[in-house]
């Protein structure tokens, strides 16, 4: 991986930009949930904060996918990063008596993020110079999200307690500006030239085209479904701030610890799984199926842990599978989809996952608020995620068998 970063300047710039941006995101998440929990004491509103990080991305995805496939992806990243920096500064207008700006401006940042992830995911194959670089880059970029969650959440919790939550919002704005500067260093095109300037943009028709493609290729459909099925259980992460504060009696530092454990597992998972799959799509689908079961058992156990440290270990284990599933399904889509459709397929993949996480995240908030038991809430929804994992494994069994069969041509 270090060899790739040393030898490929464009991927290096893209990678560092993503690292810095993710760091700022998790500083903000800890600060936002802390303000809302202190100001309202509402588990539902804490869940709504989580939804503000996901649902706007779903709503923007039909437009985002079409834009990513039709316009220069590098320039798009520059414009969006500038907009996100401005929105991050808007978070400073919130305080303990007025929390609505947190939802508005974080929702704006998340809506713009719907353009960033598909642009990066669709652009990486064009910056990689050979299949081995693509495989390495996919693992590297996938694990970065988890590593930066671990680092950003852990440091963000301490940072918020020491310097204040407004300082975390300023740090987030700075992270977007730094990412913009790094995106500007990319010199090679992030899309094939004959697809970069298509004339007419029709968001709904464009997304329909991507859906038709997925239906024609069952492997692509299974890869997209893997994130959505896993999201049923993973939305329980919206309750980690409540678990840390209400059950274990910690403050922002406790939230940061649990989120850091989540990130560490998500960062390690792709590194482990990539050694097993080695680009084999049938193995990728197998990992995606088992991930939901591992996550379910780990989260149910974490909810009933006697101490926060054991809960953190279990959350770490659960997200080893989650990180592997998320990264490998993205890698599979990069391999299976043509460049002219890749942005829309990636946007659709992200949209369905964020929609499920948003809806389930709201459900966890409602149940936690009504039952006053975050532990039972996590148990119910993580258990549902385990059942979804079993259903996914049963559905993909013939797809895996066909993908494993030797070619007769």
From TrEMBL:
Subcellular location as annotated: Cell membrane
Lineage start: unclassified sequences, metagenomes, ecological metagenomes
InterPro entries membership: Bacilysin_exporter_BacE_put, MFS_trans_sf, TM_effector
Membrane protein topology class: Multi-pass membrane protein
Transmembrane segments: 12-36, 42-64, 76-93, 99-116, 137-160, 166-186, 284-302, 308-329, 350-370, 376-395
Keyword tRNA-binding among UniProt keywords: no
PANTHER family tied to this protein: MACROLIDE-EFFLUX PROTEIN, MAJOR FACILITATOR SUPERFAMILY (MFS) PROFILE DOMAIN-CONTAINING PROTEIN
GO cellular component: plasma membrane
Keyword match Ribosomal protein: no
UniProt KW keywords: Cell membrane, Membrane, Transmembrane, Transmembrane helix, Transport
Protein name: Unannotated protein
């Amino acid at each position: 991986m270090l060899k790739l970063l040393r030898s490929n300047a464009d991927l290096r710039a893209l990678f560092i930009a993503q690292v810095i941006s993710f760091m700022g995101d998790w500083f903000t998440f800890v600060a936002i949930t802390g303000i809302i929990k202190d100001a309202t004491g509402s588990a539902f509103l804490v869940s709504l904060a989580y939804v503000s990080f996901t649902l706007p991305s779903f709503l923007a995805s039909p437009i985002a996918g079409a834009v990513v496939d039709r316009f220069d992806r590098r320039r798009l990243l520059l414009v969006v990063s500038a907009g996100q920096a401005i929105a991050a500064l808007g978070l400073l207008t919130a305080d303990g008596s007025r929390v609505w700006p947190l939802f508005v401006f974080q929702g704006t940042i998340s809506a713009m993020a719907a353009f960033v992830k598909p642009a990066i995911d669709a652009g990486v194959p064009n910056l990689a110079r050979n299949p081995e670089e693509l495989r390495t880059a996919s693992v590297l970029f996938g694990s970065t999200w988890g590593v930066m969650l671990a680092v950003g959440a852990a440091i963000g919790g301490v940072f918020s307690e020491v310097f204040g939550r407004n300082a975390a919002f300023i740090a987030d704005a700075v992270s977007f500006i730094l990412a913009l500067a790094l995106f500007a260093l990319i010199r090679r095109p992030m899309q094939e030239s004959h697809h970069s300037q298509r004339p007419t943009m029709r968001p709904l028709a464009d997304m329909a085209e991507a859906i038709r493609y997925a239906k024609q290729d069952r492997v692509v459909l299974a890869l997209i479904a893997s994130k959505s099925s896993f999201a049923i259980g993973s939305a329980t992460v919206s309750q980690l701030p409540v678990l840390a504060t209400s059950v274990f009696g910690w403050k922002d530092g406790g939230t940061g610890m649990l989120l850091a454990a989540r990130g560490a597992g998500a960062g390690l998972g792709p590194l482990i799984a990539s050694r097993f799959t080695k680009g084999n799509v049938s193995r990728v689908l197998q990992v995606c199926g088992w991930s939901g079961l591992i996550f379910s058992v780990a989260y149910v156990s974490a909810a009933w842990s006697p101490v926060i440290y054991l809960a953190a270990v279990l959350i770490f284990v659960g997200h080893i599978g989650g990180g592997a599933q998320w990264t490998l399904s993205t890698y599979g889509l990069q391999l299976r989809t043509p460049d002219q459709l890749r942005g829309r397929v990636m946007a659709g993949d992200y949209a369905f996952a964020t929609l499920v996480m948003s809806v389930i995240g709201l459900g966890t908030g409602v149940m936690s608020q009504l039952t006053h038991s975050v532990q039972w809430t996590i148990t119910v929804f993580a258990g549902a995620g385990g059942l979804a994992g079993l259903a996914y494994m049963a559905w993909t069994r013939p797809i895996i068998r066909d993908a494993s069969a030797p070619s007769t041509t």
